[in-house]
Amino acid sequence: MIMNKQEFLTHAGVQAQALDLWLEQRWLIPDQTSAGMKFSDMDIARACLIRDLKTDFGVNDEGIDVILHLVDQLHGLRRALEQLHKNL
Amino acid sequence: MTNPYEVIGVAPTASSADIQKAYRQLAKKLHPDLNPGDKAAEEKFKELAGAYDLLSDVEKRKRFDNGEIDATGVERPQHHFYRDFATSDHAHPYTDNSGFADFMDTDDALAELLRRGERARANRRGQDLHYHLPISFVESVKGANKRLTLPDGGTLDVTIPPGLVDGQILRLRGKGAPGAGTGGHGDALIEVEVLPDRRFSREGDDISLELPISLSEAVLGGRIRVPTPTGYVTMAVPKGSNTGTTMRLKGKGAPRRGGGHGDQFVKLKVVLPKTPDPELEAFVSNWEKGKAFNPREDSTS
Fold first, then answer.
1. Which of B27, B85, B100 minimises the CB distance to A77?
2. Can you tell me the distance from the alpha carbon of B38 to that of A80, in angstroms, rounded to the nearest whole number?
3. pTM of the prediction?
4. Residue to test with chain B: of A52, A81, A88, most B Cβ within 10 A
């Protein structure tokens, strides 16, 4: 499902102010279209992770930045490993 | 669900702060997005999160302690985890290869395999996108040009070929999601639903229609106008036609794969005038042969 900004805020339970920060930090990178930002299921799942880290785990913004960077690297590695597995 | 205190691992007398602390301790280890390779993490985390939702809410916790509610049904609703998307084959803006970039700089076989994988992904074809398009029966037989409005506000022009059947999938090459590098766009796959028609039905390439005719048309015959999906045609009804008599209009069915058309079958149905007619009544009362005719004579029941 593709959502616009307003739908995304409602669906992910995120404040507009928080989203601005997330976009600025490039924690979220939605598609930019002529009709504004478009959020994919992946963006929403990622927003849920950020929300869990922030509200449930009590991680501060600096911590989230570090975690996302490591999580992205982890997935990069997982993909590479999967590709290797296929090529072997 | 098991006892939420046991799930979180605290005593029933624990303070809110203790519960939060114990929850965070476990959640950090069990969150599926922090354990992308652990399949069981999701179930365990859901149970934990459900228990925490119950015990972190003072009101709910009190009701649970008093035995007013039990711990069932407190699992969190459908939660999409990032890990389900992050490892997908499709390129996405969060891709980060810095975790193994150093391996790729070398000359060995491992580096070559890694580079090959990267190249394949860099030039991957875009995803196929699926759509649903309802059209009328007449459009399915005649063909049509339709315009689909896409969720992102764009439009897609779809040419319906004549003779299309319900459930057929049209593939529009290159109209799917954009690919990466030289991969090109995916395709748009459009499942077409043919809406039922109140007059026509279809079997294979043949079309059926039930057509009401008057008593005089049935008895005396005549030329009547018959609707077909492509417009009206004139058909000769022979003298003495009956309800159930089926006429064939050759070549008036749906287009056939490989050329030609099916036929249209017109099933006649004799319909008397809505209001009783004294003249007709008088005629039938005086019609001696009609009284002698018993249409049920042959039936065994």
1. B100
2. 18
3. 0.54
4. A52
- Residues B197 and B194: their CA atoms lie apart, in Å, by 9
- The answer to whether the beta carbons of residues B66 and B60 sit under 8 Å apart is no
Q: Is residue B105 part of a domain?
A: yes
Residue-wise pLDDT tens digits, B236-275: 999 999 999 999 999 999 998 888 999 999 999 999 999 9
Range of the domain at B97: 88-122
Structurally, how many domains does chain A consist of? 1
Handedness of CA B284, B290, B291, B297 (dihedral sign): negative
The 10 Å Cβ neighbour count of residue A56 is 17
Is residue B234 helix, strand or coil?
Answer: strand
- For chain B, the residues whose C-beta falls within 8 A of a C-beta of chain A are 23-24, 27-28, 31, 33-34, 36-37, 49, 52, 79-88, 92-100, 110, 113-114, 116-118, 120-121, 151-153
| Å between A82 CA and nearest CA of chain B | 9
Comparing CA positions, the residue from B62, B60, B32 lying closest to residue B47 is B32
> Which domain-ending residue is among B194, B216, B237?
B194
The answer on B285 and B226 residing in a single domain is: yes
A84 shares contact with chain B (CB less than 8 Å): yes
Q: Residue B229: which CATH number?
A: 2.60.260.20
Is residue B99 within 8 Å of residue B78, measured between CB atoms?
no
Domain extent, residue A22, equals: 5-87
Complex ipTM value: 0.84
- Residue B66, Cβ density class (10 Å: 0-12 exposed, 13-18 middle, ≥19 buried): exposed
Tens of pLDDT, residues B178-202? 877 777 888 889 999 999 999 999 9
Helix (H, G, I), strand (E, B) or coil at A29: coil
Q: Which member of B27, B36, B98 has the closest CB to residue A57?
A: B27
CATH number at residue A31: 1.10.1660.10
Write out chain A residues lying below 8 Å of B100, CB-based.
Answer: 76-77, 80
Tell me the backbone φ, ψ of residue B86, rounded to 5 degrees: -65, -30
